[in-house]
Amino acid sequence: MAAAVKPLQVDGVSRSFGGVQALYRVSLSMEPGERRAVLGPNGAGKSTLFHQISGMDRPTEGRILLFGQDVTGMAAHRRAALGLARTFQITHLFPKLPLLKNLLLALQGLDGMKFSMLRPLSSYKRVLARAEGLLDEWQLVDKRDVAVQDLSYGEQRQVEILLAMAQEPKLLLLDEPTAGLSPAETASVSGLIRDLPREVTILLIEHDMDVAFDLVENVTVLHSGKIIAEGSCDEVRGNPLVQEIYLGKKAGWTQAVEP
Ligand SMILES: Nc1ncnc2c1ncn2[C@@H]1O[C@H](COP(=O)(O)OP(=O)(O)OP(=O)(O)O)[C@@H](O)[C@H]1O
Ligand SMILES: [Mg+2]
Predict the structure, then answer these.
(1) Would the N or C end of the chain have less CB density within 10 A of its end CB?
(2) Mutate to test the pocket of ligand 1, among 10, 26, 42, 209 (most ligand atoms within 8 A of CB)
(3) What are the pLDDT digits (tens) for 140-180?
């Protein structure tokens, strides 16, 4: 039987900014349905890696493949059309508008791309039904008329994930979905990520090792732009280099990530 097409292959990707080597020959690949975390301290290159995958930036060397297709030179919106979504930044929303309106605007954009031939009214009705369905599914119905800026940080993160999932992606990139959240909000957003459909492949950047290990089966550790460890959660947790750098007495993980 032929091997399943890999949702993501990062092949020897480097990215430098002037003298700063943000990524150096990074390679990783993901299997369909896999959940993997990218861990590493501030400045390790995690967001830069996401930008290469999503198409917001281009590598100085190496290739990115999505679903078996070389997308290294491809624009971000075309990568999205292949089935890639990343968390929608809440700052790109309309903070003063109610949640439902934001959702409608985002879905209309998606709908317009997919069904531009259909009549506007039927298209709007379908989008409205979809938005209401999503709010119901995500238990946000009672927040539909609340301005996005008045939602809690936890709810805003939930909306970011909701908007990414509304694109029905096959590969989802989450950049620090629990950053800045209280322990209770972190638990709630983690639960939501855990319950996402298993067929969606998830690549997650996370500072908090415990949160990451709770959500994924595999981990890639970046340090100064290079992969220093990779494997299952247990393998990475037991890796002496990772322990030395992040779990050692002097440089606990939390201290290591603080600027
Ligand atoms: N556009 C840019 N111009 C110049 N340097 C950049 C740029 N983007 C990133 N860098 C540098 O590349 C390195 C990696 O940055 P990156 O943002 O990828 O780290 P990170 O792992 O996401 O960190 P954090 O945990 O703080 O989000 C850093 O030294 C950063 O200063
Ligand atoms: Mg970052």
Answers:
(1) N
(2) 42
(3) 999 999 999 999 988 988 888 988 888 889 999 999 988 88
